[in-house]
Specification:
With 245 residues, the chain is α+β, with helices and mostly antiparallel strands. The protein is built from 6 helices and 12 strands. It folds into 2 domains: 151 residues, 2-Layer Sandwich (Alpha-Beta Plaits); 55 residues, no CATH class. The strands form 3 sheets. Strands 1, 2, 3, 4, 10, 11 and 12 form a 7-stranded antiparallel β-sheet that branches. Strands 6-8-7 form a 3-stranded antiparallel β-sheet. The protein has a two-stranded antiparallel ribbon with strand order 5-9. One of its GO terms (molecular function) is RNA binding.
Length: 245
């Protein structure tokens, strides 16, 4: 006899979804805990963000802590004014929190971190909309690296190609200008050219003795609104993504 569809178990329990205010408060508390635990806080930015590369970076700096959260909430955790700051001079970091950036909590020295990031650069394929870092030039003739099936797609990308005896052939010299942006990712992947560079830049450094050093003056948000509250709706701000190592 077939099982009745009406004979179903219905769970009467429910898990309350974590509220937005609770998420903010949790992030603020974690920032306070890390400020007590680590000797330095650094504001960092990543050029040509790649998740895979970031995972490798977290592994290399597994004794440090990375925070990617809403800038306004991280600002509240640090203290937006001298009266609100959690520790001495932490409010000086707040103007640096604008755009896509994060906080790095570490016990490593300034020299160790700067030296590490200065050499931590990895090439990857550019994405659509990125600016090329070099000019790529192809010369007229057979393009044996491409299969015949991809020839129509190459023409769509603007390359003057044709099939000659089943071989993709470039009819004239073709150049991808350094400033070219259209479909850059696809072109450079096809050519196996990695022109994007994943790298991390440090904007500012705060130490637990109260000293603050600004390294990248151009990234200061002089119009930073210090009157935002935790009840503000931040849906259009940076993505919430608190990560630790």
């Amino acid at each position: 006899m077939p099982k009745s569809k009406r004979n179903r178990l219905v769970s009467l329990t429910a898990t309350r979804k974590k509220g937005f205010a609770e998420t903010k408060a949790s992030l603020v508390n974690e920032i306070h805990e890390c400020a007590d635990q680590y000797a330095r806080i650094m504001v960092f930015r990543i050029d040509n963000m790649r998740n895979a590369k970031l995972k490798e970076l977290r592994t290399d700096l597994r004794y440090s802590r990375f925070f990617f959260g809403k800038n306004k909430v991280m600002s509240i955790g640090l203290g937006r004014t001298e009266a609100e700051e959690y520790k001495e001079n932490l409010h000086k970091i707040v103007p640096c929190l604008n755009g896509q950036c994060g906080l790095l909590f570490t016990n490593s020295s300034k020299e160790e971190i700067l030296k590490f990031f200065d050499s931590y650069r990895q090439k990857d394929y550019a994405r659509t909309g990125d600016l090329a870092t070099e000019t790529v030039e192809l010369y007229a003739g057979p393009l044996s690296q491409f299969s015949h099936s991809i020839e129509p797609y190459l023409r769509e990308l603007g390359m003057p190609t044709s099939l000659q005896k089943g071989v993709v052939t470039l009819l004239k010299d073709f150049q991808f200008a350094k400033k070219e942006m259209h479909s850059l990712q696809n072109k450079h992947k096809l050519l196996e050219k990695k022109t994007a560079e994943f790298r991390v830049k440090i904007d500012a450094i705060w130490s637990n003795d109260g000293t603050f050093e600004l390294l990248q003056k151009n990234n200061i948000n002089e119009n930073n609104n210090l009157n935002d509250s935790m009840s503000d709706e931040d849906g259009d701000d940076d993505d919430d993504d608190d990560d630790d190592d």
